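[[Sequence with tokens]]
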Amino acid sequence: MNNINLPPVVKNLLIINVLFFAAKYVLNNIGLANLDYLLGAFYIDSPFFRVWQLVTYMFMHGDIAHIFFNMFALFMFGGVIESRWGAKRFLNFYLITGLGAVALQLGVQAYEVYHITGSIFNSGITDMELVNQGIQANISIPGLSEEEKNTLLGIYGFPMVGASGAVFGLLVAFGMLYPNTELYIMLIPIPIKAKFIIPIYILAELFLGVARIPGDSIAHYAHLGGALLGFILVKLWKDKDNNRFYKYYE
């Protein structure tokens, strides 16, 4: 794969993500705008929700490590897949898996809000606003535990950011299209075939999503949503894929 030229959609996605990341820190540091709250994806009943966030969230990232690992995966796997599918199909795949990621995450959030309040809307959170890069809000529902209050504040007051959902879609696509390609994983000194290591990643995300480990702020269900849409799209498209240029990797 080292000899494969970087195709146009992957190259432009890398550039756009880096530009968004740089703009976020510049604008935040000068106090002009908080792009996480403008472009990150909020729960649909949050006062911060805007419809464009369903797309723009996948171009935002939390920190250097977050964007580095997502862009590294996009570079490593996206180039191979775009070279096989072409620019249009690859871009459609990337955006659809990103939308699938946010859809599943919002669905899980709606379930959590309903479980706590009995409704997915009008949760009783009022006067929510961003104050000094933090959330200030009142919760008017009586009888809630501190854990339930914190859950609601987390859902309503903090955005989801990152391309991880679309990246997980790419991982699944790569594992399905090139199952016998050997991959090196950090801390594991031997190569492992894609058809083995990628399902392990998916199962780990499922476990972490269900376990709800305290302090874990990663949107694991978004990763699963991207992986699920990636699986469905590859199954729909694979029989129509007549480009065998990369048969070597299969």
